[in-house]
Amino acid sequence: VKAFTNANARDLTQAVTLIRQARDTHRSVAVAGGGSDLLGMMKEGLIAPDVVVRLASIRSLDHVTVKNGVTIGGLTTLDALAANAAIRRDYRVLAEAAESVATPQIRNVATIAGNVCQRPWCWYYRNGFKCLKNGGNTCYSVSGENEFHAIFGGGPSYIVHPSDTAPALVALDATFRLAGPAGERRVAAADFFTLPTVDASRENVLKDGEVLAEIVLPPRAAGTRSTYHKILDREAWTHAVVSAAVVLDMNKDVCRSARIVLGGVAPIPWRLPEVEKLLAGKRITPEIAAAAGEAAVAGAKPLAKNSYKVPLTRNMVRRTLEEIAKA
Amino acid sequence: MAKRRISRRRFLEGTGTVLTVAAAAPALRAQTPAGAPAAPHTTITIALNGAQRRLDVEDRWTLAEALRDHAGLTGTKIGCDRGECGACTVLVDGKPVYSCSQLAVWMDGRSIQTVEGLTKNGELSALQKSFVAHDAPQCGFCTSGQLMAATALLSANPHPSADEARAAMAGNICRCSNYNHYIAATIAAAQGSTDAGRASQARQRDGGDPESVAVQPAAIKVSSATSPVAALNVVGHDAPRIDAAERVSGKAKYTADIMLPGMLYARVLRSPHPHARVRRIDVSKARALPGVKAIVTHENCSVVWGAGSISGGAQYNDEVKKITKHRRYAFNNPVRFVGDPVAAVAAIDRHVAEEALQLIAVDYEPLPFVLDPEEALKPDAVKIWPEGNLSPTARNDFQPIGQKRGSVEEGFKASDRVFEERFSTSFVHNAQMEPRSAVAHWEGDKLTIYTPTGGIANCRTDMARDLGIPAENVRVVCQYMGGNFGNKNQNQDADLIAAALAKETSAPVKLELSRKEDFIGMHGRWPTAQYYKVGVKSDGTLQAIQLRGFSGMGPYRKNSGNIAGVEIYQCPNIETTISPVYTNRTVSGNFRGPEYPQGFFGIQSMMDDVAAKMKMDPVEFIIKNMTRKAGDQTPYTNYSLEECIRRGAEAFEWKKRWKSTPGSDPGPIKRGAGTSFMAFRAGLGRSSAVIRLDGSGKYSVHVGVTDVGAGAKTTMGLIAAEALGVKLSDLEVVWGDTDRCPYSVGESGSRTTIMTGYAVVEAARDLKKQIAEKGMPKGSDVLIGNATPNPTLQGKVRSTFGAHFVEVEVDVDLGRARVVKYLAVHDCGRIINPLTARSQIKGGATMGIGMALHEDLLYDRRSGTPLTPGYYGARVSTHRDAPEIDVIFIESDDGLGPFGAKSMGESSKVPSPAAVANAVANAIGHRMKDLPITREKLVAALAAENGGRS
């Protein structure tokens, strides 16, 4: 690994300053949350920063605060998040998503902000192909090995968004607080992630030098049930082949409203508005769950080697709804 | 808290402890070369195993690097350096963290505990003791990480269930796959007990899936009905490894832990092309980088890698070296696969060496390439070698390999039914936890090479032959080794490259391969395509078996490429034609039962399918058709195959679990059972042993084993103790150093116990004879018993037998296949050490499950680039993928080998993939013909069967 300077940020203001200073002196900069993935990318030569600005040293962004909903500091570890009693009780989908990530060792350092903002795990990108995500102008998966690629929202890049917590946060209607050189702004989780048609080299709206500082979850409505189901490729430590974050606002056994967001199938957390409409005002019977499964895959455009994701998605949505209805 | 320190002076003002460490650490900044700017570095303060330490660290150092290279704590291992395997796990403020994936500079003010901190005042912790008692560490390379994860678990949850332990340790891969013993040891430690039986009871109380719980004790020993075997004095009793304390305390020194004064670090530049001519290599910029000491390429290094070439190892003699048409060099031009070495650099530290690689400019002329073995044999395929892509034998014989008995044409005519089917298996990497490395050190004309080899004697011969120096001038040392699994009973190109660089620089050189390099630059199981045609009588009696097979060997023929399995059936007419084929993929080689697990998957899936189509119970079909004499003519030294199958079927409750109508479970969760059986070589052969007895009464057993993880040192010690009539504690075992040990056959082919173990028996006999003649030595006298027996079999074949029984659960909606019950029944002759034997059987079976269900090395077809090298990409099994494996040993003693012991290490993996695949077919009613049986294949197959619906 090329020599670089590490700079521990004391607070958000200093972090933004450190990033700006590096840029002003024409030094490339990378920000580190937990750092696991960042170091891997540096060792693979995917990035070679001159300066690493460490955010995990910002103590004020490592918190879960319950007040008018919940505010989660971006530097909260996935382990802390999954273990947090308020999150487990009221935002189960997020706790389950967080504890499905990678391994205990990674969850002990990985931050929620880092998980949400992590770069794709497409094997072309990770193996250093000069693809759309890596300064090139081709997505190698389109006519290559695309077993794990997008069946929704693909083009010109067909990556799938790698985050488990992102579908949960979109399903929970979270708001992200971003901080950067131009100050702060707030973005709805659903608007944070961007399709490759917007900018194929990126996965979200973060501007240069901007970081995800905090995540705000709205108060939980009484009767909310939520869960995260994830299909892995072996029994531990893989990204989602297909996952589903389901949040149902229930009045006894009738679904008042639903938010269903898929992971592993699209370049962004993939919300299913048609399925949500279909469920609203209904009892979750096996027939409704099956219809929801069908609706979930309407419009899927599988590539040559990932059509198996279509039945997988259909069955996953149906089964998750059946199970949550029983809960 | 962290203070940036530019001057070395401030560092030297640190605590005395750090000073000592710094003096012992050769690669510290003291070596910053003239003209090179010092890399940014920072002084940090940490509580390291309870003691406050100040360390000056480069900002780019990982915590693992700082601990290992600069704090002298090499108990923390680097298995992948990417947060995929867990070998580097340490506790940071009490929580397990991958030290390879954290920067040391981030640790300022934190408390760090490593494996070295678990031992208090020289006493192992309760968990460490439990690991020893349960034989949790095999090769030991993942052990420190497992210990740290388990330590954190027990402090947070003093009474975990087995499933909780698996979840907490899911980030710690064990390629020996001794997952059962790690979990049992952790739970036993939680109960303050080191007794294996109590851990087993604890599992039953878990309340988890009752089927995943071992109902019986972990292993049952049964003496064969035909050959009663009673335990001897030492042999046959559970014995913890003699070096277990070293393996659980971080004291065991593996090759990468070797530090020599003035040592340089080497890195290899590898081809990014699957096939290309190297037009020009410009090393001038790299050579000019301060700190770079030497660069070797094909232009200035023409060393032949003999053991890497045709047929490899012992078959590669001087004559073959002269005549071979397809010679493999340490650096080849053209390069023939992505990962073929192009250049290597030695520099003052690993970062400088890595930077130098970036500065080497290589002008490649890309050539057409071929990845698939069947494609490679087509007339218009690119020729990887001038003679074409059918790989020749060592004697330049360009013919497929195979066997023939009777006439298959006649056999098919005589058959009532004939079946045909194609099966395929994929490239699965050995993935031993220790990445390959080598430390080479020349003293005058004498080379010492520290390397993870399973055969110090063969490695030494190979090194001498390849470097053109006398064998006396080569010393090979391997004290501990992080897993073998094949292709290590010889030298590696890393050894040669390190030796070349050490010669060039007149300094010791350490070459470390990354995990990715180990995956793509070294060897894995050859992928196969297998076409079977089988004829049977209406009662199910076999009449003819024909196999046409293709094995993808990569561009260099390292090993046989054979496909085994047909020979374990009685059948009057057989014909196999196997083509080992060159491709532009990573080289294939021996991996735990080289030609067996993939061949057994093919033939036993085929036969299971035939039985299903004949409406026969596969157990009945097997008993009707299995081998009873080798090749249907030569008797076995003993025969227990039928007993293995019958006892296994009974203990497994086969009739209850097997579905006479496959796929008949209602609903999406379907269960089914499968079986397969095994006969595997257990021949005799030449090896040596020396036992020295001195005037103090101390016995020293010198054997040329390295102990790859199977427990050879302990096994040799037990055999010696039994043969000498002394206690294990009365003797020491001397191993792993060609200067101190006699020839050994080397740890491959499951031969060490049989061959070197028998040499120990004979050496003991010799020593006892001398004692009888001369009396016990006194004062400075010594007696030396030695033996190099080369026993042969008189017209018989010696084989080990076994049968595996597997129940799987398949969720057809979600394509999830999971093993819920597994029974392995083995006749390995007499069991020398039941404790380590269980580890061997469970590990092999568990590895086979991974091969059956998920492991693969996937390639991009357009660029010829491997896409999934590494534990994450290749989906190597984790704690959560490993079910409980029940083991039954049927012991026998055929009067041969040491006390009747037979082979074991490979045989436990051989039947596993077939048994799992057969269980899947029984569960879902659909035959899965291509390994691995991944989720995507299962879902796609079931969707296709339902007309696109599932």
Can you give keywords for this protein?
heterodimer; A: 327 residues; alpha+beta; five-stranded antiparallel β-sheet; 13 helices; 13 strands; B: 950 residues; seven-stranded mixed β-sheet; six-stranded mixed β-sheet; 33 strands
Question: How would you describe this protein?
Answer:
The complex is a heterodimer of chains A (327) and B (950). With 327 residues, chain A is an alpha+beta fold. Chain A contains 13 helices and 13 strands. Chain A has helices spanning 12-24, 36-43, 78-83, 85-90, 92-99, 104-107, 112-117, 123-126, 165-171, 189-192, 273-279, 286-296, 309-326, and strands spanning 5-8, 29-32, 51-54, 64-66, 70-73, 175-180, 183-188, 211-217, 224-231, 242-251, 254-263, 270-271, 282-283. A five-stranded antiparallel sheet of chain A has the order 4-5-8-6-7. In chain A, strands 9, 10, 11, 12 and 13 form a five-stranded antiparallel sheet that branches. Chain A is globular and about 60 Å long. Chain A starts with a strand and ends with a helix. The mean pLDDT of chain A is 96. Chain B is an alpha+beta fold and 950 residues long. In chain B, helix 4 packs across helix 7, helix 18 packs parallel to helix 25 and helix 24 crosses helix 25 (912-924). Chain B is globular and about 85 Å long. The model of chain B is unreliable at 1-31 and 196-218 (pLDDT under 50). At the A-B interface, strand 1, helix 2, helix 6 and helix 13 of A face strand 5, helix 12, strand 31 and helix 26 of B.
